[in-house]
Design goal:
about 150 residues; 2 domains; three-stranded antiparallel sheet; 3 helices; 9 strands; about 10% helix
Length: about 150
């Protein structure tokens, strides 16, 4: 998973450097090609006012893809979505959230969220996950993996 590359200074090799492909480590069997294509998914939610669509896999009903096309500046939307402490102001199910560890060099973080109960079947829950944010082409991606 680590790729070695040579760092050069004025044409001279200084030291090997390792680049981690965090997405490949988090999701070893997931391919970035086709992330924005949904051939085996059906649309289950579409909110045209805020640009949110949720798709569900036809074969695996526990697999979802979400596509958000906000009607605001993309970088502003991305900063808002990755600002965990502010989640409770715009996400009604979240009571608290914070970043346990930020790994800026990898665009990654260990994130904690606490969701409130909203029915007798859905009790208060805690989530801890690894979040990786990256850009491919003109699209930004946020990948979360529960840990």
């Amino acid at each position: 998973m680590l790729e070695e590359s040579k760092i050069k200074n004025n044409g001279k090799e200084v030291a090997p450097k390792y680049h981690k492909n965090v997405f490949a480590i988090i999701f070893p069997y997931y391919h970035l090609e086709g992330l924005d294509h949904f051939p085996n998914f059906k649309l289950i939610y579409n909110n045209t006012s805020n640009g949110t669509c949720i798709f569900q896999n036809n074969d695996n009903h526990r697999q979802f893809k979400m596509k958000i096309q906000p009607k605001v500046d993309t970088l502003f939307a991305l900063r808002t979505m990755i600002n965990v402490p502010l989640y409770k102001h715009w996400h009604p199910e979240i009571v608290h959230g914070h970043i346990n560890l930020r790994i800026s060099s990898e665009n990654s973080a260990i994130v904690y969220q606490k969701h409130k109960a909203y029915s007798k079947w859905y009790r208060e829950r805690d989530f801890l996950y690894l979040r990786h944010v990256f850009k491919k082409g003109e699209n930004f991606f946020i990948a979360d993996k529960s840990i």
